[in-house]
């Protein structure tokens, strides 16, 4: 399954470079046209980051500014890389390399290894867990299945953070990792694992990056050869870069700065693998002249979903929280999120199945519904509940679509029919492309009606049905398309791992859901101990759990359900409570003692002018806020833009036009001084709100949404002076 989209499956290729820019919003267009020097795109969930960067590459290629073969776009999953290649193809940007870090490094290793080292590249081991088990046996360390998995994770973390076995114990302690075994024992296991690999002449996934880094560092001639090929780099999901990947990127770049990075610190959910948002947050420090663009217009989710997402982050602590992006929904309001408490987990699963059935009855396709949970072990009860309700489902993270046996067999049958169809009696009575595909696939198990129940038979049918639907869409977009054309399309999609949508409710962990979206999302098991997970002990770990929930919330376009059970099994002790992350956000809840709650229905928290808490001199007190209401008509406000204005868009404005113009002039000068877009100082709506309310002192200014404590400290004196009719010179700002 790929990330769902409401765009046409087979859009027309733009006929010019300028046409590539059509339909982009101002910030996306700024990304697409910023083709020189370092560029940092801070992109919130649902703001069209992939659209922005693929249009950027395509515009550069189509305008003749970038040579396709000189561009390397890297991301973190084969699915994301495949989606990027597919979009670039649809935009007419052929020949651009879009790969994962590992794929790009492996390709370079395979090419340069004979020259740099000699002989063939050692065999790549896809799964290292058996090697770790053998190393443990050699060290006489007994590990059960879970310990074996955790020890493997520690080895992976060590390698991506460039930690050698001798330094593991100290590095783990410094990073605050809770190791599954004694660190000295794990260091011994790690060393034995590396020895075993050398003895067997094999390498693992992390070695691909390590060896590529080693060759590029030691062989300047090879490094220059790579740099002569790739002149321009784009890195997606930059908040997930590990120190090792960052080092490889630096070696690819050399002394150049033709780099565009895209990320969101609030979506950092893989720190256990060595990922860190520091590279994203420090980008301006490393590249002082960088262009920075913030994407905050959320095209995915309704205002109700966005309000909850913003509220979650408003409670957050830490460096990533300090750089959070406040999303602004671009969609019409729909239903509020639904919060449900169940007596036990089976009741929760059955309740989710009932609501899913109701959504499907109302016309929501099963493929547009997802059930997301914290750990994979939670899936079984939902598999059973959906099967009992006769609802088809698919497990995210299962076998890739084009690698399924039935899909390979179907492809072979379609290829044969395309080649010899004129002599195939099966196709004698069918003319149009979809009918031909249905006829061919009927020999492989496809029928007009799905088989009853679930299981392997139903899974096979769903795969074939997805191919039938793809053929129907392809024929609608290409009226003259032949079976051979469809086979070519399938081959390209297989190469890009751009799978068609399979009809079935998606069951996935929150981590596996990253980068995907659905019309309806069920976030289940949201009880303390599961969210945040029990082993999240430190503040940093708890904050990552909050970000994980934020990622789950922002997967939903229109319908969002959040649920938890007060006991695990029927008749059990009702000793569970809803996750602390929802305190102050869900109806009827309040902030727990000591928690920094966003409070109120709006779920947005603001500082109160420098008050501190016992946690430290820089801590800011958070206050519960009542629902935001229009100061003209009194209606409850849900849209983030209206909340900034403190009135409905349609209600009359009493703005001082002259004051607004003076504020805009001041903002433009301030933005030039700090080298950032004007909206980074204040958005238009915040300036309008200031010009309407004309604050006379700091407290009044602080109450305007979009100001906040940091901007109050930085810009408050200037703004109040301008509101008082005083002149503020460009050179005096902030002094």
Automatic annotation (TrEMBL):
Residue ranges of every copy of the HRDC domain listed in the record: 653-733
Compositionally skewed regions (Gly residues) per UniProt: 597-613
Catalysed reaction, written as an equation: Couples ATP hydrolysis with the unwinding of duplex DNA by translocating in the 3'-5' direction; ATP + H2O = ADP + phosphate + H(+)
UniProt keyword annotation of rRNA processing present: no
Keyword flag Nucleotide-binding: yes
Gene Ontology MF annotations: 3'-5' DNA helicase activity; ATP binding; DNA binding; hydrolase activity
PANTHER family the record matches: ATP-DEPENDENT DNA HELICASE UVRD2, UVRD / RECB / PCRA DNA HELICASE FAMILY MEMBER
Listed name of the protein: ATP-dependent DNA helicase UvrD2
Native source organism of the sequence: Streptomyces spectabilis
Organism ancestry: Bacteria, Bacillati, Actinomycetota, Actinomycetes, Kitasatosporales
């Amino acid at each position: 399954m790929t990330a769902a989209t409401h765009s046409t499956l087979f859009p027309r290729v733009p006929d010019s470079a300028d046409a590539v820019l059509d339909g982009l919003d101002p910030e996306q267009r700024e990304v697409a046209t910023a083709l020189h020097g370092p560029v940092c795109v801070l992109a919130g969930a649902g703001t069209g980051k992939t659209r922005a960067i693929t249009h950027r590459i395509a515009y550069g290629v189509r305008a003749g500014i970038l040579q396709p073969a000189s561009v390397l776009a890297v991301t973190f999953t084969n699915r994301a890389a495949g989606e990027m290649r597919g979009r670039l193809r649809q935009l007419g940007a052929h020949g651009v390399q879009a790969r994962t870090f590992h794929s790009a490094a492996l390709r370079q290793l395979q090419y340069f290894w004979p020259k740099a080292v000699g002989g063939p590249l050692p065999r790549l081991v896809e799964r290292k867990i058996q090697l770790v088990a053998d190393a443990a046996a050699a060290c006489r360390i007994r590990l059960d299945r879970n310990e074996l998995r955790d020890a493997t994770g520690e080895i992976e973390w060590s390698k991506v953070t460039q930690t050698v076995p001798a330094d593991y114990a100290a590095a783990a302690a410094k990073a605050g990792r809770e190791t599954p075994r004694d660190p000295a024992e794990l260091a011994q296991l790690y060393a034995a694992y590396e020895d075993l690999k050398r003895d067997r002449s094999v390498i693992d996934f992390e070695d691909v990056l390590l060896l590529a880094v080693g060759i590029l560092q030691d062989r300047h001639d090879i490094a220059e050869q790579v740099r002569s090929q790739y002149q321009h780099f784009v890195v997606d999901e930059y908040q997930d870069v590990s120190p090792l990947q960052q080092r490889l990127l630096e070696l690819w770049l050399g002394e150049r700065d033709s780099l565009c990075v895209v990320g969101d610190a609030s979506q950092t959910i893989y720190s256990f693998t060595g990922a860190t948002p520091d590279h994203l947050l420090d980008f301006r420090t490393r590249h002082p002249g960088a262009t920075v663009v913030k994407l905050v217009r959320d095209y995915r989710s309704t205002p109700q979903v966005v309000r909850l997402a913003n509220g979650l982050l408003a409670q957050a602590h830490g460096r990533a929280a300090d750089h959070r992006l406040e999303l602004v929904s671009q969609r019409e309001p729909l239903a509020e999120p639904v919060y449900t408490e169940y007596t036990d987990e089976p009741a929760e699963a059955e309740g989710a199945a009932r609501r899913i059935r109701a959504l499907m009855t109302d016309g929501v396709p099963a493929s547009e519904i997802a059930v997301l949970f914290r750990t994979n072990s939670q899936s079984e009860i939902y598999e059973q509940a959906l099967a009992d309700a006769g609802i088809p489902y698919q497990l995210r993270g299962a076998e890739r679509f084009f690698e399924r046996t039935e899909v390979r067999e179907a492809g072979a049958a379609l290829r044969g029919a395309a080649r010899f169809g004129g002599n195939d009696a099966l196709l004698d009575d069918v003319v149009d492309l979809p009918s031909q595909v249905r006829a061919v696939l009927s020999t492989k198990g496809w029928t007009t009606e799905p088989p009853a129940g679930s299981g392997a038979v139903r899974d096979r049918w769903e795969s074939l049905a997805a191919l039938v639907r793809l053929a129907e869409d392809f024929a609608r977009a290409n009226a003259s398309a032949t079976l051979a054309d469809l086979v070519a399309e399938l081959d390209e999609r297989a190469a890009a791992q751009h799978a068609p949508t399979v009809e079935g409710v998606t069951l996935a962990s929150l981590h596996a859901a990253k980068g995907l979206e659905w019309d309806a999302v069920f976030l289940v098991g949201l009880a303390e101990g599961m969210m945040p997970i029990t082993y999240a002990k430190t503040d940093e770990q708890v904050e990552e759990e909050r970000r994980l929930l934020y990622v789950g919330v922002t997967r939903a376009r229109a319908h969002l359900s959040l649920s938890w059970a007060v006991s695990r099994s029927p008749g059990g002790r009702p000793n569970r409570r809803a996750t602390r992350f929802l305190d102050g956000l869900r109806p009827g809840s309040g902030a727990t003692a000591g928690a920094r709650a966003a409070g109120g229905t709006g779920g947005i928290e603001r500082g109160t002018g420098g008050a501190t808490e016992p946690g430290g001199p820089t801590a800011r007190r958070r206050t519960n806020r009542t629902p935001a209401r229009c100061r003209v008509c009194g209606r409850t406000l849900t849209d983030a833009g209206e909340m900034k204005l403190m009135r409905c868009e349609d209600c009359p404005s009493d703005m001082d036009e002259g004051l607004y113009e003076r504020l805009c002039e001041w903002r433009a000068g301030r933005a030039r001084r700090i080298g950032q877009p004007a909206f980074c100082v204040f958005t238009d709506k915040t300036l309008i709100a200031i010009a309407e309310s004309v604050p006379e002192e700091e407290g009044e200014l602080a109450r305007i949404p979009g100001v906040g404590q940091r901007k109050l400290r930085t810009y408050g004196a200037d703004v109040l002076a301008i509101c008082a009719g005083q002149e503020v010179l460009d050179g005096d700002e902030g002094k």
